[in-house]
Amino acid sequence: MKPTKIWCLLLLGLFVLPLTAQEPVVIDSLANNLPNVGLNTTSADLVPNQGFTLKTLLRGILGMAALVLIAFLFSANRRAINWKTTAIGLGIQLLIAIGVLKVKFVQVIFETIGSVFVSILDFTRAGSQFLFEGLVVDMDTFGYIFAFQVLPTIIFFSALTSVLFYLGIIQKVVKGLAWLLTKSLGISGAESLSIAGNIFLGQTEAPLLIKAYLEKMNRSEILLVMVGGMATVAGAVLAAYIGFLGGDDPELRLIFAKHLLAASVMAAPGAIVISKILYPQTETINTDVQVSQDRIGANFLDAIANGTTEGLKLAVNVGAMLLVFVAFIAMINGILGGVGEYTTFNTWISANTPYDSFSLEAILGTVFAPLMWLIGVNNEDVMLMGQLLGIKLAASEFIGYIQLAELKNVANSAHFTYNKSVIMATYMLCGFANFASIGIQIGGIGSLAPGQRKTLSEFGMKAVLGGSLASLLSATIAGMILG
């Protein structure tokens, strides 16, 4: 099918899908009796979604225009930008969001896939219970212990992903998605394989699919590989997010699974849109879609062992990272709080902001609040949303999701007012775009293509910007539709 025909179908879909949509719901069809997502709160505590209106449409358009403008300002070649690719990419994001949030049969598809992730959490729990027993099961006594409830999920899902990769299942799915991206958005086969792979794999695993092409890729292609890694998350940590955002409630787990999956899928066209604005393609590209034939492990059992080992490394790294960053944030807040107490600045902060005292969160919330307003966040929640974006950039999305779990609980002194903010934050945080990921990509992708290491280091900050803008695009579109 020619790109022109695909573009026409996308435009048609934008008009047809809203007509087939359901009436406005608070979150989705599963949440009729549980309108607002909260780990420890009920639906009566948050202002429900208002539904799609002219006002939310205009706010959404403003947000998308602002994000595209930011990318345009940082573009390496503004005259070479392919605005048709930009329009098609945004159209695909809109179609996915409308489908997930409003169209019943699309919701069913994502809910079905989400239920697989929820089942994986239950399977992991069986293994965790065997090792830790009461520390996992008896939460009334021991509480929710992050190390025992969340980190084992990363290990098991990593092993499962390794098996699926060994069997060639992931490669087949990725190749199909890559073909669609190549035909609709006109990117190279290697780029589309990497982007599609990022939906399931991490930012250093997905490039394995294009290992044979990495050394030959031009600068525009390399940036897209990097932005794609920054804009998405690996399946292993996606399952972990579902676990601690949804807690023990199976309905909440399924709701978050659906939204996190949608965020990861929406990030693929979003990453292409932003990357091709930041560094437009000006060279001839190869549109052949061929997956590298490298396999993880010599046999089935070796694949499980390799995946388990890699998952253990990732889980230990995540645990150590969280310990250090949470401790550093506490230390910084202790210092800032002391300064605020000495200068009586804490009193002003408490009276005029959602925060009790001068803190890192208050600074980040203030800095990013204008951007949050531009993408459609309600006035009452702009600082809290800005805080989450800042924490994600400075520390990691894991810390951001931990803070989100607290902000959606109205029992806490600082909490969201609107349910829409919870959903938008879920989409916004779904990506590896932070400063630490620059080093991870230089090391990981650079080991596969040593000749590209210089380009990788030059594009580090631009990749963080691109990944962040792609995630913000997804959040903007979701907020526009939810109202």
UniProtKB/TrEMBL annotation:
It is a multi-pass membrane protein. GO terms for molecular function: nucleoside transmembrane transporter activity; symporter activity. InterPro entries: C_nuclsd_transpt, CNT_C_dom, CNT_N_dom, Gate_dom. Residues 62-135 form the Concentrative nucleoside transporter N-terminal domain. Keywords: Cell membrane, Membrane, Signal, Transmembrane, Transmembrane helix. Residues 259-479 form the Concentrative nucleoside transporter C-terminal domain. The chain crosses the membrane at residues 57-76, 88-121, 141-167, 222-244, 256-279, 314-337, 357-375, 422-442, 463-482. It is found in: Cell membrane. Residues 147-246 form the Nucleoside transporter/FeoB GTPase Gate domain. The keyword Transmembrane helix applies. It comes from the Bacteria. The keyword Transmembrane applies. Residues 1-21 form the signal peptide. GO terms for cellular component: plasma membrane. Belongs to the concentrative nucleoside transporter (CNT) (TC 2.A.41) family. This is Na+ dependent nucleoside transporter. It comes from Croceivirga radicis.
